[in-house]
## 1
Amino acid sequence: MAGTLARKVRAFWALGPFSDAHMPAVHTALAMAIALGGLLSIGHLGWSVYATFGVMCAAYGRGLAPKPNFLVQLVGGLSLSATVVLGAVLGLMPDRELAFVIVAPVWAGIITLVGIRVQWRPAGALFHMFGLGAVAAVPSSSHLVAVSAVVSLAATAMTLVLGAILVRVIPRRTVHPDPELPTVLGVLRDRAAWRLAGTYVLVSAVAGLIAHSLGLGHVSWAVLTAVAPLSASGHGSRLLRGTQRLVGTMAGLGVTWLFFVMHPGEVATVIAVIVLQGVTELIVVRNYAWAMLTVTPMALKRLRFGAVLF
């Protein structure tokens, strides 16, 4: 029994195949450096909560040839920008938390269907739920709604141009064949697509309502934790993903505490976020628990940037 337990523990923390993870790692890190460096130079680091999610389109399209890679990242970037603007609109509401609880499940279902249409990887609406919750968490204004649109779209455009360059100059060992994309009508007729979208709606709604009714605060974190396992396929993989997120997040909070007690300045914080983003993309598809060690402090630093808005 001890030997079986040891094997399970090793498997829990084992890293999967590399699978050219250097490509999204370099892409996201460079794009994040350009976006955050630019905002820091003009004295608007608080707007980084909008820019970083435009940059996250670089995480899509892993291993694809240049054209399908660009198309997947384009749709991902536009949908993430729309998510940012929607979050800023929710920030106008008197009860931002309740507004998020109501809107997030519907948006998760829509985004899931969009993802199925373009076959983006990682699958699902996790990035969008993170973006919606992060932006909606801070008070907004009509001016900031406009700023959110401009900054997120500008970050997306910059990331797409950078990706179009990098995909041709960074060597990769394997390039996956072009995916066979379903038509819009095909997705709308696909019962499996609706089941997955419905699962996102149900899970995010239940998690949000429970967290809101209990007055726990940070409802978006409850929703994120609930939907994170859904990007994996099969009950066993989802159970593993959920457990890895829980364990990795708890360990990541320790890393975050160590970072905060050092009281880093803005420049040091920006550098840390860039490095953490690159490391995350190197390991997130290889082992989700290890990735949470970098995702947790990076996410909390992003939210702290957002707090600079006010």
## 2
Amino acid sequence: MPFHCVKQKRCKLALYSIKNQDIRNINMAKKKVKEEQGVSENQGVATAMTEAGAENAEVRKLAPAPEENSIAYKLLSLYHLQCIYSEIDKIRIERGELPNEVRNLEDDIEGKRTRISKFQEELNEMKEREEIENAKIQESKALISRYEEQQNNVRNNREYESLSKEIEYQTVEIQNSEKKISKVQAAAEIKTEEIKALESEMKEKSEILSQKKSELDGLIAEHEEKEAELLGKADVLKAKIEPRLLTAFERIRKNARNGLAIVQISRDACGGCFSMIPPQRQLDIRLHKKIIVCEACGRIFIDEQLVKEDLERAAAAAEN
């Protein structure tokens, strides 16, 4: 191979090596720049998140209590009242069905006592009717005796037949009165048996009632002090709530199955009936411009953030 061709080939190889080296250097430089940019971006994001967190913490820390008579203040008052009522409900649930059982037994005993009193009145009326019929029998017997004496002194057959008819009539009256007395006595016996049965049942019920009342009194004594304290707090809160709003709250609570009249939104749904709440309505709830109720169950809505801020203020006050 000629010398100039070898020299030309070596020059091409050298240029190719330099070009590849330059490309590698450029790629490494680009990679380094990207890594530096990524680190700075991550640091910036972390710094921004830290600053945002600090700012939010400061906002939460400095969140002022709602002004009195504002919608937020009214909602929190109702929420606090609901919390107290929920505690009272827990105490009463622990008693179970015992109060209802005692009430039902008392009603049952009172009903039996009323029936016994009514049956006694009917028995007295039966005795009066029996006495009236006995008096009629005695009167009819007296008339028969007198008519028989008069028959001995009659002057003709016509008078004798007339007295005989009177005696026959009075005899029929006596028979009718005796039949009525028999019916009255049979009915009186039935009523007497019913009264005895009712008295026996009432005695058994009274014994059970005494036992149930004893158990209930024990449970009431166990939670009486705490329940009285909670009821006192509820009365204080109710005095601060306007009557119209309090009446609506108590009506909703009475009709609600779980006793909750004011609820938060959980997973975009009502915390009471679990009906879905539209986003615009959720925004209105967070703004606290007016009191909003669930269109499905009628419960009052309260914003979750408002409750959290109130709890944080209460915790801070407790620490201080």
## 3
Amino acid sequence: MRVTVCIPAYQSAGFLSETLKSLQDQTFTDWQCHVVDDASKDLTIAVAERFASADSRFQVRQNPTRLGAAGNWNESIKGVDTEYVKLLCSDDVLAPTALARGVEALDRNARATYAAGKRDVIDDEGRILWRGRGLWRHAKSVTGAEAMRRFVRTGVNFFGEPSFGLYRTTALQKAGGFDPTWSYLIDVASYRDVLQQGDFVPVNETLGAFRVRNSSWSAYLVGKQAEETRAMVRNVGEQPWVHASKSDVALGEMRASANALGRRPFFLFAEAMATRKTKG
């Protein structure tokens, strides 16, 4: 096997089947999958075991006690020995060519440690709210330092979620996995750590759909994410290898705040859609 897809799951019974089916439908077939349930109280483990009973590429285990997001992300990647690894969130959906495009991107650049593509944003019902989010116009392969310097200057996670990226396994392992000191930007912290070791390769295609859950639709959470984004901008900007200036950091912090304000109308719209569905 060349790719291990790790799926940390918690209370995911409602969406996990769609996620696992999208993995089975990949045009690239040289993969195995670790599903790790974080002591869910719903039927998450039953859904995963149903797929595993029919497809030996799925391996399922359950934590005896809850580890939390970062803990379960790290638990899911334990023992991975394939060349590449993907962390797939348990409610996201992959496009059929997602694995193929990621493998092609990393195969083309031996110095690359992470590749990522664009994604649509969908709601609980699978309705598309945004199309083709992520990356930047005319994105091309860049050094890790340049990619992270762009993050500092923009204050935006243009890499997207790890569901739509692919790590070189040795780089993620050398980084120590996922940093538990971050609540909302665990993924960006991992990009920081693996891109210190190599290049970033963008895939200028939509590789799947990121699901925005009802529980994410609040101004409070948007504000907390903006606060942590500003902290990450400062953290990355202070890394000597990134070569970011003080003005880069100041600009990034300002843009992170502005981006949060710009997202509020979207979250209000999404919340209104969910409320209308509930009442209907």
